[in-house]
Design goal:
- There is one protein chain.
- By secondary structure, the protein is α/β, with parallel strands linked by helices.
- Helices cover 29% and strands 24% of the residues.
Length: 403
Amino acid sequence: MDIINGLIHTMGERGIIEHGAVHVENGKIAWVGTMEQWGKRYRTEAGKPVLDADGGWVLPGIIEAHCHMGITEEKKGMEGDDCNETVDPVTPWLRAIDAINSMDAAFDDAVRAGITAAMVGPGSSNVVGGQFALVKTRGRRIDDIIVKAPAAMKVAFGENPKVNYSGQGKSPSTRMAIAGMLRRELFEAKDYLERKKQAQRKGESFQEDFTKECWIPVLQRKIPLKAHVHRVDDIFTAIRIAREFDLHMTLDHCSEGHLIARELAAEGYPAIVGPDLTSRNKIEVQNVAFKTAGVLARAGVLVAVTTDHPVSQIQSLPLCAGLAVKAGLPMEQGLRAITVNAARICGVADRMGTLEPGKDADVAVFSGNPMEVFTRTLYTVIDGQVVFEDGDDQSHVAFAFPG
């Protein structure tokens, strides 16, 4: 398959290619270049489908770096809400893939917005909520759309765990308890891993513990802590604990990050900013602002933007990036915040986030800048298959090459 006549935003080393084309083979990007180069290389390969971008913007598929679609289903109430196991504050062994319903309407909304992948997982009612997964946005069976699982371990600081468990008359009811419970869990997991390694070195048998095995990829820095943090003090507590245990971590929401941008840049942890397209309905989000992403990016923090669906609707992700641009995030950084930066933060940049040979053929074609409200999604391509095209107009799809 070929995508031709587009303004190609590779989001990689080649930057923007005017009047360009993308060649796809076996679900992977095989080549990216100018139309002149494409004509010399591929024009004679008759019979393959061609998508004519007709001057539109061609980008790598958009990536949502933090959401709960399919795990908090729309229109289904309690029966479709599997986001928080609110009876035990520490549940690291829970796996998002066991609760994500890929038939949730949000998946179709994502595809129609050019969103081809999303990081999906438990909510923030627990100190430790469980394991996130990075999935593609089209497919009936969750097992068939998993890109990476586990992809992160969800932990939460601040208001949410306090409100949930103080209301039940048990810990944590303070920020001290949240931090203490997480430290204790990490300490026990670290001890478990050392005992397991020691037994393996000695060739001794070892009784594996299901509730601790899930921590091993975190302790080995293969996946990050995914830390729900809004307030400045919670952000610094999360950093303190990550440094104590030498862990990778992402700062999810980071709503007061603009107040401590220099400090966060020096620490080096990436931020997933949002949801900003929502009301300030909690004490800890009183300083939410679209300017946060821009302030952090200018300070040198690696930034992605999130809707936190269903807090904001997932299809608004490109617009959220646009509103961040309006508030000071540079235009190029706005596009990066929903493509390559999101891929890097989610640990899948080897497969997606840029239009480069060898990457998954996840491509979004827009009538213009996707961060502008009137822009239409013309095509969404996942793994080299067209999964959405704008309206009923078939004029852009051809199986014979243009004259």
